[in-house]
Amino acid sequence: MSFGMFAGLAVLVAPLPAVAHPQLPYRWTNVTVGAGGYAPGIVFSPAERGLAYLRTDMGGAYRWDAAAKRWLPLQDGNVVSSYMGIESIAPDPRDPAVVTMAAGMGANAPAAILRSADRGASWSITPVPFAMGGNEAGRGLGERLAVDPNRTTTLFFGSRHDGLWRSDDAGAHWTKLATFPVAGLGKPAPRQTHGGVAFVLFDPASGTPGRGSRRIWAGIADPGAVHLYRSEDGGARWRAVAGPGPEMLAVKAAIAADGTLYVGYATGIGQSDALDGAVWRFTPDGKGQDVTPPDHREGGVLGVAVAASVPGTVAISTLDRYKLGDTLWLSPDGGAHWDDLGPRSRRDVSASPFLLHEGKGADFGHWITGLAIDPFDAGHVAYTTGATVYATGAAGQARVDWAPWVRGIEQTAIITLTSPTGGAHLVSGFGDLAGFVHDDFAASPQPSFANPYLSNTNTLDYAGRKPSVIVRSGSLYANRPREASLGRSEDGGRSWVPVKLPAMGNPPARADLNGEAAISVSADGGTMLVATPEPLRTRDGGKTWLRVQGLPGSTRATADKVDPARFYAVSDRHVLGSRDGGAHFVPLAGQGLPADLSAARIRNREQQSTLVASPFAAGELWLKLGGQLWRSTDGGASFQPASGTLQVELFGLGKGWGRIPGLYAVGTLDGLRAVWRSDDLGKHWQRINDDGHQWGLRFRVISGDPRVVGRVYLGTDGRGLFYGDPAEEGE
Questions:
Q1: Which tens digit of pLDDT belongs to each residue from 477-508?
Q2: Which of these ranges, 32-41, 464-473, 503-512, has the smallest mean pLDDT?
Q3: Which one, 103, 249, 252, 415, has the greatest CB density within 10 A?
Q4: Which domains does the chain have, with CATH numbers?
Q5: CB crowding 547-586: b at 16 or more within 10 Å, else e
């Protein structure tokens, strides 16, 4: 038998230029939300009680630490963005210290197998040629990665696009199985994906320790006549296994100690096309039986789990059960009878009140693809959703009480944030979760971004001299109605009123309902400007609107944080200014700037502003032009370079140690991409993150705190929201 072999090179990170960078020690802490994003899979270790792993679609992997009673992030030192999307994870079934995972965000992004011998504290990384989709549709399938319990150096991986792969040296080298009947569909078209080999499972009862398992199952989630295969000789030969009709894809599976296989089927791979499904039970010799719950009428079965400690106990969960709501069934007898846990379940979300952010009670959950039963305690069941992880210790009781199992998990995308000069020190704008006022960084925030509720907050602004006034713009999911995409708060973001613009044009239409129009507010809170195609201003809270003169259409305005009469903006050729409360804009001299300012143009609604007004002095402006910062202290009449050799991506201001503001940036200096601070107006920079705090280098927004010296806020794309403070000596 001949296989094409791929000998992966085990690496930690790409070598960096040998340049010494000044390092300023910082202490980094997550601002607590409590999960918040989609975790496609959760698995318990069969080798040690109290050990579990969680994989997320853009925030890396986590390990449950039973002693600390919290989840520990396992990839904060990772620098490869794509590796934060985890396709599959497999704890070693014999050695609790060993864990392996498949990492890769999408079909056109780098992919690797990561191996750890210390529970994920450190990783060896083997880049692989088969693409993954840790953040693509179908990321809840699996598990694709399997470790042979009878010879733990043998691993199989079911790829999305390129068939079935095998390693016999614990994941260091991989060969494609040429005899597997499904070779793969190849790289998909842009914005498309494949389900591929959805899961691989070894039957522990089919082998002996040291010699390997003989029986292996593999499920297929691509269109075709056959969706389940079985090997009886360790993977050398495969035979088709009959199941439900060809429209049903084999998407999820679990195997019991006696070799019985339970397979979840769906008509799609998720997260919006798995509209019907089924559950089948297969004996070790491949004979199948439909054991779908009789009252299952909608949704795919994307969660399947068995209880190792109680034979016959099986759990399944649904996905895309839109009309009836997703739920979980439990069977005590191998699928002969099912009990729907949904109607008798209760959820206590008091520790995660953000889950009420849409103004309704916490439902059973959505995007349920991760489902696991503790192998040491059949009553301990956990499942994942698009926003949290729920767990119960009483799955078999008359009433099932669930609570978020999320301490330590922060898996969200931060679009924007602001640190006002008064009130709460931090107000955030999230993707999917709207946003929050953070009064206590260690506690999950109460939801307040309602009226209007907007799933994404795209921009935030506060009135510099009246910081209780905050305005926001945002956008909704496409399938939800919207009456307003702008809001105003008079109490620091705790309550809101919608800001609505009049219909304009021919035929008349409102230009503020698509989420594209940013809103800004004057230093005294009295004037609001909206960046619609014909920019508008109001002085009476939105009752009446006037057209802004001299400001190009859809151009975001920046309010001076000290002088309420001043606003600023930047066009392709000029820095613009207004001294009459935004009524009229005129070109400013802008001496020192290049003639072409188009690099400062805002190109999408979630982009951070390239023109920032200092909260400490009237007329002090900071402009990002490409990777260069410029500073003006005379209201835009003149500018001076202010970033040295640092190539700046994101920047923000905070309270400094004297009259000079602290300057914070994400950028690249001498080949090192990192988080930086400058205390001398950008002449010199010190790195303030370190090799253990890199978070895939997935950054969205940064800002200092105008009231706390040295404090910085950093919003990531997947690992949540952080605040950093200078570390005390010895930390």
A1: 766 667 899 999 999 999 999 999 999 888 89
A2: 503-512
A3: 252
A4: 34-404 (2.130.10.10), 414-726 (2.130.10.10)
A5: ebebbbebbbbbbbbbbbbbbbbbbeebbbbbeebbbebe
